[in-house]
User: Fold 23S rRNA (Guanosine2251-2'-O)-methyltransferase from Parasphingorhabdus marina DSM 22363.
Amino acid sequence: MARKNRSVKKTGGGLKFWGRHAIAAALANPSRNIKKISGTRDAVASLNLPADISVVYCDVADLGRMIPRDAPHQGLVADLDPLPDIWLGDMLDQAAETGRPILVLDQVTDPHNVGAILRSAAAFDAAAIVTQDRHAPPESGTVAKAASGALEIVPWVRVVNLSRALDEIADASYWRIGLDGEGDQFLSTAMGNSKLALVMGAEGEGLRQNVAAHCDTIARLPMSEQMESLNVSNAAAIALYAEYTRKQEN
Assistant:
């Protein structure tokens, strides 16, 4: 399979993560290069640190000045490098062996939403999330904190062109379902028996027309008329749960 749609990182030379879950997960990820841990003595003592990682002991006020204001650092801040780029084709080769679903995000730019989606993707055994490089947040401490460790577990593939990526996903025998409140069938009906790529649009704007045109079908989640829509991270969790239970029942 051709290797195209590679990510182009825009995160600069280094990142800062904060919080115990995000940092413990980064320490457990062999693909992550951690350069320094800063923290209180009690918080650092709670980690199983390799001997080659630099440790700087700080008080709470010093840690608060290293990261965004009011970020819940829990006594720990890590300096680390972004994860290596992931080729879409490589991810598809690996996912094809398991049939696990792929989640494609169209212009979902809020880092808290992307972090929450990563957490749901880990919980419901998704193979990866795929985003367009220009219309998604960079890897960051905010994403890592919201993901609660899932950033280190779920591959995040960034592509230049989402429509071309959807074509490549179709070539790998995935059934592409766009989620939209105006879909003419429910997700449960649209799923069929194929491997699934679930395509989610941003809140408000929804799926762009060209992205929707590269889906095999458009479906909606069953919902009470009392609410018009759901937050995209909530909708993603429900869609992934529906696919996860479908596989468990088969």
About this structure: Strands lie at 15-18, 34-39, 54-57, 76-80, 102-106, 128-132, 156-159, 174-179, 195-201, 217-219. The domain at 88-249 is CATH 3.40.1280.10 (Alpha/beta knot).
